[in-house]
Every structure is written in structure tokens, then in C-alpha cells.
Amino acid sequence: MARKFDEFAEMMLGKCMRLQSGGKHEEALACMVDLTKKMPDLELAWHYHGMNLMSLKRYKEALNSFNKATELDPKDWTSISARGLCKLLLKDFDGAKKEFDVSLTINPNDVPTLVFACISSIMKNEKVPAEAYIKKAIEIEPETAGEMLNTFMFSLMQQGAFESDKKVKEAYERLSSSLRKLQVAKEKYKESKKKKK
Questions:
Q1: 160 confidence band (pLDDT: 50, 70, 90)
Q2: pTM for the model
Q3: What is the pLDDT of residue 68?
Q4: How many domains does the chain have?
Q5: Using CA atoms in the order 179, 184, 190, 193, what is the torsion angle rounded to 10 degrees?
Q6: Quick one: the chain helix, strand, coil %, rounded to 5?
Q7: Dmax of the chain from CA atoms?
Q8: Which helix (H) or strand (E) holds 126?
């Protein structure tokens, strides 16, 4: 069972997060390790421990932290999504998509999770699910969804993730085209509603 968040936990977590946001990733990780030793049943400590490991690109270790967080709180959709992101970055696209789907059963309107589920589907060359995820994300927050998708996919392209897979690259390009059309249609719809008022 997860520990309740108290003043001591808030103080310790705040200290660790200040180190992390200040770019002191190794110090932040040491702080989180200390926090998880002192409070092994604090779900948030394990979540942020995993986030620190992710920032250091230690994805396999981060998975263990997110696993611990979800053992303490099975409805912790943020840790489930983060676990999916680790798997995505480790190129386990099937595992990543499963994690995102589990997270979306708990919080179906989380735009980052929808975008990452879309990317997992693109990487698996699954056009229909990819379009469904991104359309839902656009309905919720069009600018954030489009920006996240393009930024993350561009990063994967820069890393050469698509060099050997022409079909995946084509699927992304088709989805980007659909995304642009959807955004234009949504903007025209908003303009027509304004004119009617």
C-alpha cells in the first residue's frame, strides 16, 4: 500500500525535483535513491526516481522504478505511461503500445499518452490505430498534439530510426498529412462558428 503524502515527503521530493530541474541529474538521482530508501512505500518517490533515470537515458532501470510505483498504486497512469515511453525509447513498440493502452483505460484524455500511443502504432506500421489516437488527441488539444507528434517523430528521424524502414516513414508522412488536413478543417469550423455569432 502506498504511503500518504506528508510534509516530510513534500520537503524531500521538492529538494530532489529542484536538483532535477536545475540540470543536476546525478545529484537528483542520489536524492531520489535516498528518498526511496527512507520511504519505500511512497509511490511518488518511485515515479520521480524513474523520471530521473529516464533523463539519464537509463531506461531499463527506470522501468523497475515505474514498476515499483505501479505496484504501490495500480491506477498510477502517469507511471504506466512513463513505462510505455521507456519501452518506446528501447524500441519495444509492442510493449510500449500495451502500456499506453493500459494508461488510457485509466485516463483516456491524456494528450501525451495518446500521442505516444500514436507513435508506437506508426512504428508498428499500424495506420488505423495511429490515426485514431492522434485524432482524439487533436480533439482535446490540437496544438499540443501536433507539436508533440512532429517533435518526437522528427527526433526519431534524426536518430535514424526510419532509415531501413520505408513503410514506417511513409505511414508517418501520410499521418502528418491527415493531421494537417484535420487541423485546417478544425480551424475553418471555429472560424465559421465565430462568424455565425
A1: low
A2: 0.78
A3: 95
A4: 2
A5: -130
A6: 80, 0, 20
A7: 61
A8: none
